[in-house]
Here is the input.
Amino acid sequence: MNAASKSARRTAIVTGSTSGIGLGIAEALAASGCNVVLNSFTDRDEDHAMADELGARHGIEARYLGADMSDPAACRGLVEATAEAFGSVDILVNNAGIQHVAPVEEFPVDKWNAILAINLSASFHTIAAAVPHMKRAGKGRIVNIASAHGLRASPFKSAYVAAKHGIVGLTKTVALELAEEKITCNAICPGYVLTPLVEAQIPDQMKVHRMDRETVVREVMLERQPTREFVTVEEIGGLVVFLCTDHAAQITGTALPVDGGWTAQ
Ligand code: NAD
Here is the structure.
C-alpha cells in the first residue's frame, strides 16, 4: 500500500474487539476500507496475529493495541496511541463490555464497580480523548454499543442496566455538544447476540431461574425478542458502517434498537 492510499483511509478504534460484536464491527469497518485498531486488555501474541490477519485479508492497516478499559489512563492512552500511529482518529466505537447477573442485595461491589468502569466510564474517557482530534479534523463518528438494556430493564442485572442507560444519556449529551462540528454520536442497542458474553450468562441464568439451557434460551433470553432469533454480529457491523457514511450525517443522539422487536413492546 502506498502512503497516499494509507492516508486517505479513515482510522477506526473498536474497543473490546478480539471477540464477539467488537470483532464483527472491526471486520465490517475493515471490509469498508477503514484502517482498524483492535483492542482488549490481554495483549497476547494471538491478539497481534489477529490484527495482522485482518489487515492482510482486507488490504488495510490493522493494529492491536492492548489497553484495559477499566483504567481511565489506559482508555485515553489508547486514543493517543492510535492518533500517533495513524495520524487521525476518525471513528471511535465504544464496545468493550462485561456482564454479571445477581440479585441486587447480593450483587458483588467489585462487579458493580467493574461494570460501571468498563461499560460506561471507559466511553467517557475515550470520547474525551478523541473529540479534540475529531474537532481538528472537522469531522468524526462516535458509536457506542449500548444494549436493549439501555432502554429496558431486566431483573438481576442492576449494574449492567444502570451502565447501559447511562451510555444512552452520555450519547445524547455528546451529540448535542458536537452537533455543529460534523461529529455524530449514536448508540446501538442490540438485543441478544450469541457471543461469548451471552454464552457465559447462560449458566448463571439457569441457576437463577432454575431451568435447563434450552429452556432458559427460549423462555428467558429470547422470550422478549419477538423474532425468536439471536441478532448477528454482521447485522451490528453493517449498522456501524452505515452510521459512518455521509448518508448518516443527520443521524445523531439516537439510541438505535437492533433487537428483533424487543423494545417495540
Ligand atoms: P464478548 O465477551 O464476546 O467481547 C467483549 C470484548 O471486550 C472482548 O474482546 C474482551 O476482551 C473485551 N474486554 C472485556 N473487558 C475489557 C477490558 N477491561 N478492557 C478492554 N477490553 C475488554 O462480548 P460481546 O457480547 O461481543 O459484547 C460486546 C458489547 O456489546 C458489550 O458492550 C455488551 O454489553 C454489548 N451487548 C452485547 C449483547 C449480546 O447479546 N452479546 C447485547 C447487547 C449489547
